[in-house]
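Hello,

I think I submitted the magnesium ion job twice by accident. Can you confirm which output corresponds to this input? Input:
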Amino acid sequence: MNESLLDVNSLTVGYRDGSRPISILNQVTFRIRKGETLGIVGESGCGKSMTSLAVMGLLASPLQVQEGSIRLEETELTGLSAKQMNRYRGKDLAMIFQEPMTSLNPVFTIGSQIEEALAIHLPLSRSEVRKRAIELLQLVGIPSPEKRHGDYPHQLSGGMRQRAMIAIALACEPRLLILDEPTTALDVTIQAQILELLASLKEKSGMSMMFITHDLGVMMKMADRVIVMYGGRIVETAPIAKLYEEPLHPYTQGLWKAIPSADTLNQRLYSIPGTVPDPREETPGCRFAGRCPHARQECLAAVPPLVPMDEDRSVACILYS
Amino acid sequence: MVPMIARKLLELVLVIFFVTLIVFFTFRLLPGDPALLKLGQDPTPEAVAAIRAEMGLDRPLLSQYLHWIGDLVRGDFGASSLDGKPVLSLLAEKVPKTLELAVLGTLLSLFIAIPAGVLAAVYRYSWVDRLMRSVSLFGFSVPAYWLAILLMLIFAYKVHLLPAGGYASLAENPWLHLKGLVLPVLTVGIINAAQVFRFLRSGMLDIVNQDYIRTARAKGVSEALVIGKHVARNTLPGLVTVVTLNFSLLLSGMVITEQIFAWPGLGWLMIQSILSRDYEVVQGAVLLSAVFIVVMNLVGDLINAMLDPRIKYN
Ligand SMILES: Nc1ncnc2c1ncn2[C@@H]1O[C@H](COP(=O)(O)OP(=O)(O)O)[C@@H](O)[C@H]1O
Ligand code: SF4
Ligand SMILES: [Mg+2]
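Support: Only one job matched these inputs. Its output is below.
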């Protein structure tokens, strides 16, 4: 449980705007242990998807890794060619996206889309591939899998499509499954079913997960450890229980206040005032200063570094240094 | 599938019905009396009345129309007022010539546009893409007559390689027939290639950015298969629509190209009969063109119903 599967170090991702380099992710450092679920939380636009796409090697030009390293056990992934990266994508690394309605290819059957992943990476015969695809459909809880195998995406509901996406991702039993807001586009009851399915699949397989959501409530159900991102940086990292009991960073505190609970149900929901900064606009010091209730002059002097508080928790805020 | 075909066939009949209305009444409203045209200079009023009665022009319009439709249904498209030849046999003689140009022109356009479009989409925003876009802009913006004359100047007058125009029968003089084909096919092919290229490039670029393409990449699908399978397969229905539409427009109206190269096809016939006010022939030709367009549209829809699983179910 203590061995690292993924080590991300000082990852900086961005693009060039003329001669000016723009960084969307800044010095992002974290690791995911074997069998662990790491949650990434933060408001929309904080760089969660960018982090996952960088790990998958799916950054679309002009975006690129400007600095840092991404290691999958012994293999350095940054700098691999697309061809080399394809050996890992779909095999060791798999990803499920937010939009089940648009993430499946409309002109191919569900079955063939699962089989494609199998056929690329595993030395199986055609009949074995088909058999395994049907098993996968069964595994993700799609009823009458033999029949659904021949269905096209538009014949399935959103929840069923997301199950099909999960089947594709799990086809080659990945070591790391990345989920980018996998239930955000689904309604609440379906969301609960999918989360339950994911938790049980995780239990069975022992794979690691990177689970991205902007919803701390969902995070409570899924994650072992959480990193909180703000403005392309990690501002706090801690086990989910600690983060719940005692959020340290003012941004994390704000996120907790913003989730609906029984006693806030009838009131107007709290939200952190202000908006996430645009990567193109430069601000001095702490990225959160403009929205932080504790902000003071020193906060503008320099970006507060991520400082370890105890053996498994770090925070980037001058209140704690 | 079957209800769709039935619905489309019904649409086809309706559209053709409307076309007959438009064709018929447009020609009746045009100035100029075909009876006078037939008789030449200074006819006697009696002769005019006689020929009008013979042509049915003295009856009410509605009765003329119904009569015409009745004849059409029986396969009687009337006769040319110039030489009395049946319109149907005139059309039957011209259509294969137009078909030959349209088929070869379309094939040539695909032969140019598909590799170019794929290259431009794969190497998007690179110099390859920019070069192909500039070239296509040329093909897209020059008028057909300009290109036709340019080709003619180069290949017929500068280097005396090809005939400037004219049609030789394939059976009697195959070599001359082929030589005569080159310039009109080039004209049609180049202009259509530009259109198909522009569709392909923008269509593929749109699809490359779809979420399901990212899913394919996340599975480890190679770039060649991402483009050659996932992108291509989703671009195909749009391509079929563009190609069938272009093809039907070629069938029904290569007026300029056929005129310039003296290629006696349907477009050429249309111009000749308009100039000589040969009503029956023009009507027949316009009607046939409309049928081509509607039928090709149906063919495109049917092909797409097979290519895109979403179509059958809505
Ligand atoms: N292709 C792109 N080019 C430039 N900026 C981008 C691009 N995609 C996302 N961004 C910017 O990067 C930031 C982080 O985006 P993202 O990782 O999608 O956020 P999240 O997933 O946390 O909502 C946002 O400010 C967004 O505007
Ligand atoms: S460093 Fe200052 S502005 Fe930033 S979170 Fe801490 S207190 Fe707020
Ligand atoms: Mg996102």
